Amino acid sequence: MSKLRLVIILLSICYLSQHLLSEIIAEPATLVYASSTTITSAEQIWEIDFTALPNNVRQELTGQGFSFEKGMSKGKKIHIVTDDNNLKISTTRPAFGFMIKKDLQIQQANWLEIEWGIERYPEAANWDNSKNREAVMVYLFFGDPLPADHFYLPDSPFFIGMFLGKHEVAKRPYIGGNYTATGRYVCLDNPAPGQLITSRFNYSQAFKTWFDQATTPPVTGIAIEVDTGGLPDGLSSAFIKRITFQNAN
To answer: Which CATH code for domain 3-247?
Structure first.
């Protein structure tokens, strides 16, 4: 199945844009909206905490409003478990899947904080060499769906996809070959395998700059995705401890 055809199927299901590209273009400017230091005087607005998940992870997250799509729906190629107070997502072969929570209205926040890490990077994944695959990506969707830039594509909200990469230049946004006006991707950090890190990202400022907007719409959806399709063995493993939306200066 072609990447574009899969994108159309996914968007028709729940507006998730699986990279939405036929080509990856790196913007020349370095991202300046991330911080490796602790933010002071931050107000927590909304949080997803994976540290106390029961053994039946899918049932618990479904009860919290998440739906599991594509390879995550059955768990044959993509395993989701609780491990060492983390949500662990691993693949046993080339696979693509995601979990998504829609119908959100997260306002008054401007920073996103993700506590996460990679146990195994997928072999040959490298966005700078058009191997746009990753062990984990967190998507934020903003506002309502907008018209796509091609007549044959479904409408999509603005979105930003954030991932951890082994080779990619951190803090530099990428533009897809489709949805060029409404989508961006960015590698937030390059942690060593097994390292738990905290990535902090001023998504509101990035949104206004990248999309040339005066204001940032509310976050209306969030998704966690893995994609190792088309890679040599497709094996990967990542973990997430907590995702927090904050209002901070």
So the answer is: 2.60.120.260
